[in-house]
Design goal:
- This protein is α+β, with helices and mostly antiparallel strands.
- It has three domains: 180 residues, no CATH class; 58 residues, Orthogonal Bundle (Arc Repressor Mutant, subunit A), CATH 1.10.10.10; 82 residues, no CATH class.
- It contains 15 helices and twelve strands.
- Strand 2 and strand 3 form a beta hairpin.
- The longest helix has 25 residues.
- It starts with a helix and ends with a helix.
Length: 345
């Protein structure tokens, strides 16, 4: 059996990727963190055989890939065919968490305001088909309404989690919004246990080996639901003790694949780290601050042999790297050229 690091690289499709289309990557991963609007594209594309920004944009603009606030109340990418099931499973808790944050920030949005602003937002987006936040701000002003940044963000976020709006066209720098009714197929009836099983299966298949605590953290679901998800899967999933920790692996775990390079240029907020509550398998705890802060800010990272050992600069003209672990360095040129080729198309 390969090492846990090798298994994660293979099953996250960071080594020997098997997918050709960006939408297939998102479908396989179930949900991918999309906090960084520009770098989320590379997070998906680097898991394809031939990374292409044009291919990502095509999938995104057509609605095959959707961006919205969902799990843990943060930005996620999900596949269109999983959208309704994940909304039904995850949105109620995400909305409750969002309202809890609002309360802690002393922001109260009464129902009448929520409905009034939502109707105006719907009208603005319907007229433009794909609207930016600035478009929404201007449209509200035309209706004599001015909201501060935080209050408007909560309105938009709740509208997303209520399946009213989702991502619009992919713009170079700014997010845009579309009406879900115009972007996605009509709502489908979902079964709670079937969706829970789907989420659990996709998580462990694409992130293995992972612990139960990792799954609870990533999914944002309660402990009981996570246990139920594993229970439904039956013999498809098994426990294995590795270095004193209990991990779960699936019967279709990828164990073989040719790694073309030892080095990877991984974007901030990537699933390679954010999928797990404990990241010490790939990241030495003494260097954790180089990869992410205590309040959830994640940096672009370099891995050599799957070990997080440095940082890189995605927006520089030349490949700029800084290693923080001794004994780990590598030739990043191949990966840098792949990244540049991705940006060009």
């Amino acid at each position: 059996m390969p090492t846990p690091i090798a298994l994660r690289l293979l099953n996250q499709h960071l080594a020997a990727p098997q997918h050709t289309r960006p939408e297939d990557v998102v479908k396989y991963m179930c949900a991918m963190q999309a906090q960084e609007y520009r770098m989320m594209r590379w997070a998906v594309a680097m898991r394809t055989r031939r990374p292409s920004l044009k291919a990502f944009k095509k999938a995104f603009d057509s609605g095959k890939i959707v961006r919205l606030h969902l799990m843990r109340g943060t930005w996620q990418l999900v596949a269109a065919e999983d959208y309704w099931a994940l909304i039904d499973l995850c949105a109620p808790k995400a909305i409750a968490a969002t309202k809890g944050w609002m309360h802690s920030n002393k922001i109260d949005i009464p129902d009448d305001e929520l409905h009034e602003i939502r109707e105006i937002i719907i009208k603005i987006i319907a007229e433009k088909r794909s609207a930016t936040k600035e478009d929404i701000v201007n449209g509200l002003k035309e209706n004599g309404i001015q909201l501060d940044e935080h209050r408007l963000s909560y309105h938009i976020r709740i509208a997303e989690m209520s399946s009213v709006i989702c991502s619009g066209d992919l713009l170079p720098m700014k997010a845009s919004y579309a009406l879900t009714s115009n972007k996605l197929p009509p709502r489908t009836i979902t079964n709670h246990d079937e969706t829970l099983a789907m989420l659990t299966r996709k998580y462990f298949r694409s992130r293995q080996p992972a612990t139960f605590e990792d799954f609870v953290w990533w999914s944002g679901l309660n402990v009981g639901e996570c246990r139920r998800g594993i229970e439904i899967l039956g013999n498809y999933i098994r426990k294995e003790i590795i270095n004193g920790n209990t991990f779960y692996l699936t019967e279709d775990c990828r164990t073989r694949g040719f790694r073309t390079t030892q080095c990877l240029l991984i974007p901030p907020y990537d699933e390679y780290l954010i999928s797990y509550k404990s990241r010490d398998i790939v990241l030495d705890t003494t260097h954790r601050h180089h990869a992410h802060s205590n309040n959830g800010i994640f940096q672009p990272i370099i891995t050599v042999g799957g070990v997080v050992c440095g940082n890189w600069s995605p927006y520089k003209k030349d490949c700029q790297a800084e290693y923080f672990m001794e004994g780990y360095d590598g030739d990043l040129q191949v990966e840098w050229e792949k990244y540049q080729a991705f940006l060009e198309g």
